[in-house]
Amino acid sequence: MTKENVQGASEEEPQGQSKKGLKKQQKEAEKAAKKAEKQAKLAADQQEADEDDFAKDRYGVCPMVQSRQKLDRALVRVQDLTPEKAEQQIWVRARIHTSRAKGKQCFLVLRHQQFTVQALIAVGDHASKQMVKFAANLTKESIIDVEAVVKKVDQKIESCSQQDVELHVERIFVISQSEPRLPLQLEDAVRPEGDGDEEGRATVNQDTRLDNRVIDLRTTTSQAIFRLQSGVCQLFRDTLINKGFVEIQTPKIISAASEGGANVFTVSYFKTSAYLAQSPQLYKQMCICADFDKVFCVGPVFRAEDSNTHRHLTEFVGLDIEMAFNYHYHEVVDSITDTMVQIFKGLHDRFQTEIQTVNKQYPSEPFKFLEPTLRLEYKEGVAMLKAAGVEMGDEDDLSTPNEKLLGRLVKEKYDTDFYVLDKYPLAVRPFYTMPDPNNPKYSNSYDMFMRGEEILSGAQRVHDAQLLTERAMHHGIDLEKIKAYIDSFRYGAPPHAGGGIGLERVTMLYLGLHNIRQTSMFPRDPKRLTP
Amino acid sequence: MPMYQVKPVSPGEIKIDLPTCMYKLPNIHAQGTSRGEHAFQNGEVDPAVKVLEAQQDDILKKLYELKATVDGLTKTVTTPDADLDATTLSQGVSATVSKGTADLDSLLGKDLGALRDIVINANPSNPPLSLLVLHSLLCQRYRVLSTVHVHSSVTSVPPTLLSCLGPRHADSYTRHRFELGFTLIWKDVSKLQMKFNTQNMCPIEGEANVARFLYRLLGAEPQDPVLATQMDSWIDTAVFQLAEGSSKEQAAVLRSLNGALGRSPWLLGQEFSLADIVSACCVLQASDSTLAPANVQRWLKSCQNLGHFNCAYELLH
């Protein structure tokens, strides 16, 4: 608008151009000149750039891998990049963890699962300026293929898992690009809680993590946790198979609620409705009556408990054991505790890297246990609590704070994080628990604790149909609903006992974590149904 | 008829305050009524009040006596027997009753209806032989539930150490049928440690100290303070000079053992005691027993014959 005014002004005074007008014209001329200069320079640069890009074919974004061609290229895993491979030229596929450009150099940290390695692209024989610029602009989490020479470093690279080597990149191609804005930053997700608050750097909220589980699971800590969990499951299977157990699969859609009936999910089943199994209890016992002697099963367990605690999920993986015994249910208890001890030993021997990785973000004391496992009687536990000042009756159930206190007392005296509490009072156990023959107020039941929290509840089961009916009536249970269950004991049932553990809870307590959602890949609780 | 009336000059009744500094003479003429009043004036008291006062004095006297007794008791409890004259004690051997009853409740605390479990943490590279011998003695006296555990801090333990407390008791599945629990845990500890009641007792460290505690449970501690001191002295000699000392010190100890055993069958005289247990175990662990002086060898043989040393000998091979 001002220009028009100026022009108007100069038109108004056509004769002599006023000083203003002259000055304006001069300024315009200068501006135009500058602009022309810049454009010329840009053009020159561009030409330069185009001219100097000798490395054009050594970098770029690959077309989408639609299996167009079958390359016989061997990719080395980041895990295997060690000083032994020094001076070798290899291809690596990894994600970009971080990138940092500094003038003629660009430092990338490449990550594959739990392992990271530093890669360097520097302007030189193999790389041009444009290539370095391209590398610096790649988005985090993109998957890239890199051809590089492995070089030994004098000074250890503390921030990476592969500390003794570095990659000098010669070719770099993008296989799958990531969007630039990530919902959460992986470095934040791996930062220990305390550090974040002190230095003002962020840590990631649990809800954010669970909403964007796919990215959260990529962190080194999550990778370590779930590899360890896989180890627990595998050790459980291996130990039991070696003891002569048979793995069974039990149905999860059932017609009657097995344990009390209060907390079951209902599903519509054609014209009627059915329930999701609260535990494989019924079917494990039926297998024993069917002469399988020793069985175990690994499968989901559904509990419709409206508990929003740090250790309850509505769906979790149950590892259940049931075993027929000869004369005393302690044979079963010894078998179960031996299995647990083998699991702990196996985890300690084979998963040290994973345990250390988790400890970096969530420090905790290493897990201690005794072999053979410590077994205390309920009365002893109550006596220890009373000595510590807790007031409770001999037949009261242990409340959660009391359980934790007892765990601490046992840790102080025996220095073990895992123990069994035997001979619980009969009144607090389910109807199918076998009462103690010598004292009717107690039962042949037991609980196992890890770090003061209960992981297994088990007992000798009533294998006599008549006694079972009496106990069910005593507990006020509708006999019609459990008719099939009682019937299975009418045709010769061996004495048996068993128990079940939760995979997520055992992993959480072994690693000393504090929330079960950290050990469940896609957790389900009363407030969460996705992802 | 209204007359002129003169107002009375002086009021009718005049109260006269009799002086109290004078004493009254009894009224010769009148009889009886004023006697009580008279008595009061002379400083004598009412008999009822006298009785009350007497009662009060009684109660106060009793209170003072009670206070004196309590003061005396506190003094005897808080101050040690500094004025106990050791020279008046009987010299020589006093009969130590080896079958004395030990009050478990006073030593271990109130029985809360559950097994009283003694936990001992020992390093498998240094097995506590004297404690094994004491365990054997305890099993004779009480129903002891013995268990051996291996802690996760230790990778593996030779099978002899796992069975060092003998075969498992047939009743071991019912813990509450036993009076005492003896739980031995092989653990990576620098010093042997015993824990019993973590709320009221601190852990006891060192094999000799744990041995003294366990010996007390047998009720066989010598009552005679001279003997008790001698026993402690032998134990300390064995632990510090024999087990941990140089070869010169060890030789010196063996010589003194030899001398003492020349005079009597056991170190404290006629009775077997903890001094013999600890010293024998240290001698067996420190050196080759066949090279020991004659009396010492004879004494070791006597120990072995008692039968409680079998578990220790098994671990030596």
Task: Please provide a written account of the structure.
The complex is a heterodimer of chains A (531) and B (317). With 531 residues, chain A is of the alpha+beta class. Chain A has helices spanning 2-12, 19-52, 129-136, 186-190, 193-199, 206-211, 213-216, 220-242, 281-289, 330-350, 352-361, 378-387, 400-414, 465-474, 483-487, 503-511, and strands at residues 59-61, 75-76, 89-102, 105-112, 115-122, 143-152, 165-176, 246-247, 253-254, 266-269, 272-276, 294-302, 315-324, 370-371, 374-377, 418-422, 445-450, 453-460, 496-502. In chain A, the strands form 3 sheets. Chain A has an 8-stranded mixed β-sheet with strand order 8-12-13-19-18-17-16-15, sandwiched between helices. In chain A, strands 3-4-5-7-6 form a 5-stranded mixed beta barrel. In chain A, strand 3 and strand 4 form a beta hairpin. In chain A, helix 8 packs across helix 10 (330-350), helix 8 runs antiparallel to helix 11 and helix 8 (220-242) packs across helix 16 (503-511). In chain A, 35% of the residues are buried. Chain B folds into 2 domains: 77-217, Glutathione S-transferase Yfyf (Class Pi), Chain A, domain 2, CATH 1.20.1050.130; 225-316, Up-down Bundle (Glutathione S-transferase Yfyf (Class Pi), Chain A, domain 2). Chain B has 317 residues and is of the alpha/beta class. Mean pLDDT of chain B is 80; it is low at 85-100. In chain B, strand 2, helix 5 (159-162) and strand 3 form a beta-alpha-beta unit. Chain B is elongated. Chain B has 11 helices and 5 strands. Chain B has helices at 35-41, 47-78, 104-108, 129-141, 159-162, 207-217, 225-243, 247-263, 274-286, 294-306, 310-316; strands spanning 116-122, 144-151, 180-186, 193-195, 204-205. Chain B starts with 34 loop residues before the first helix and ends with a helix. In chain B, helix 4 (129-141) runs antiparallel to helix 9 (274-286), helix 4 (129-141) runs antiparallel to helix 11 and helix 7 (225-243) packs parallel to helix 9 (274-286). At the A-B interface, helix 10, strand 14, strand 15, helix 12 and helix 13 of A face strand 1 and strand 2 of B. Chain B: One of its GO terms (cellular component) is cytosol. Chain B: Keywords: Apoptosis, Cytoplasm, Developmental protein, Differentiation, Nucleus, Phosphoprotein, Protein biosynthesis, Ubl conjugation.
